[in-house]
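Recall that a protein's primary structure is simply its ordered list of amino acids. Everything else, from secondary elements to tertiary packing, is in principle encoded there. The following example makes that idea concrete.
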Amino acid sequence: MDYREIWREDNDSVRERYELSSDRIRQIVTEETVPEPFRRYFQKTASFMTETGDVFSLAESGRLRELTLAELQEINHSLYRDILPEHYEESYADPSCAGRLLGDEYGEVLCALYAEIRGQIAFACECRLTEITILNELFIEIYNMFEEETIPSPEQIRDAFFWFAGDYSEQIAHSRVRETLDPSLPFAEEIVEAAGSGDLRSLYYYGEYISGEELRIAEYMNGLPRDTVDRMADTYTEGYRKGFQVMNRDLSRKQTVAVVYQIGFERMVKKALENFRKMGLKPILYRRGVWSIDRAGGLKKGYHGTSPNRQYDYDHRYDHAVYFRKAYTDRRKAALETAYETYRLQAAGFAGPAVIETFGEAGFQPVNKRQAPALTEKQEKLATASAAASALLVNRYIPGEETSFTIIAFPKPSIGPDFEKIFDETIRINTLDYEKYKGIQQHIIDLLDRAEYVVVTGKGDNHTRMKIMLHHLSDPASQTNFENCLADVNIPLGEVFTSPQLAGTEGVLEVSSVYIGDLQFRDLHMEFEDGKLTDYRCGNFSDREHSRTLIRQMILKNHDTLPIGEFAIGTNTAAYAMARNYRIVDRLPILIVEKMGPHFALGDTCYSRSEDIRIFNPDGKEAIARDNEISLLRRQDPSEAYFNCHTDITIPYRELGEIYGVTADGEKLRLIAGGRFVAAGTEPLNEPLREEE
């Protein structure tokens, strides 16, 4: 079905409202009924909304897909020009600029309103007239408030935003749940088919910002031999299948898979969709969150392009703070429950996500702006409780013990002049010898299963010293503490991991550089007692409190503390050698970095919400370390057992001193010394590291 047909009935039901609101907004562009300095804000915003209305007309009529590449590029640049770095400081999208021109309090809320309205770009390209119309009406409502003799207070504008978010919470929740579960929405799939066949124009149909990155990726992918693209897609989809196999889950009971990717990889995605269909899975392709509540915290779940401006993303990650109140979270929870109940059959058939990540962008150093919306302490607690409640709700309809996932990563051109060589190396890294690593990692597991605890130390300026307590093996002949992780859910292969006991797990963890999402944390320092974080700092800001706030928001997800949910030892020294040779260690994603040394994950265990599913290694032993003292609380109160986050922090080999186990009688079991593997059977892992000696 044509994607325009999906929304035709909905569109017709609001068309009269849309046309009335659209006509009114066109008048606002030149009206002078609102006093300065606000008049200019409303005129500029109305002008942008008129432009998105023109894009909607092109999309609905089909003329958008008849335009030339140059015409599409001109439209795309015009839509995003306002937030590009070279224009941002003079844009109402910039909280600092909005604060300077409108006053800090007005600037904060009107800047957030403008960012919300920018979502019309996506809705226009998808021909979703309802979303465009309700945003038009919100804008006009607030504009009318400024036409009164007394201008509204910032709090009155917040109230208008709050009532809007509440009134349309069911509409917004229903649309988002449908997008993520319904395989019959053809919008992105039609684009993948065209772009995967070599038509670069189709990249602009998404409505996402298209930079030189997306164009070069697409051109490079289109130039690769077919068997190379097939191998990339096959590794990705086979990893997904193996994930179900390894976790003893029945894929045959599932009907759909969510395919998440960066724009530009359509040729690989096209082949992956074919593979998934052969498995009996219908693909779901959905956009990253558009509404402020769906992009809270800066999340990008869904297909997306390169950010036009990472500072813009950072400034607006908490726009929902403008309307985030207890009454709103109650309405949203009820709306989500209604939506999932509507799509309960689709939810039951959902197998989980298959994600294609990218890496290569230079480190981003955010600027904290006092005018940017931020959660209050009360709102942080409300957000944490709301996220926990939503996770429980989702798990009711999509049980974690029945789903799986896979993640694979490839470089982007921004990684530098060696992009093509690094891309080829990444393909090699993603397809390393499964059997070889299975055997090597088994030697590591056999050694550490004799230990009562493990010690990890840093060297040089890295002062890490962590003691990790392991679970007691009541039957070592049939039990193990570590899972032998190969190329299934996390590609590339190369780690053994466990969920440590919290009592007695303690020490200091330091890393000179680590990426968490799009942010690079520098000189990260964390302290632990009984497996829980007690103190932390980083070198991102000279102001200590700003640095602590950044860690609390991005790593702790606004919790007061988090436990260590995972301890793992990465064995992919080939990936580390690639990173070292091309000097890209600081540009790799967690997915690869976690395979390049020991790492610790803060938050839930790797087995979150599926702890009771028995897991067996290739040698037949059961991995019994699936719980810790906190996850066990699920048996009394699930809301106390989970944090709904799992963030990896890796110590690279160059900063690593020793890793050794200690047995109950004090014997030292050496695995790594001086950053090199010394245990019997692990020597091949040192071969890629020899150039560094």
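The chain has a mean pLDDT of 94. The two ends are 60 Å apart (CA to CA).
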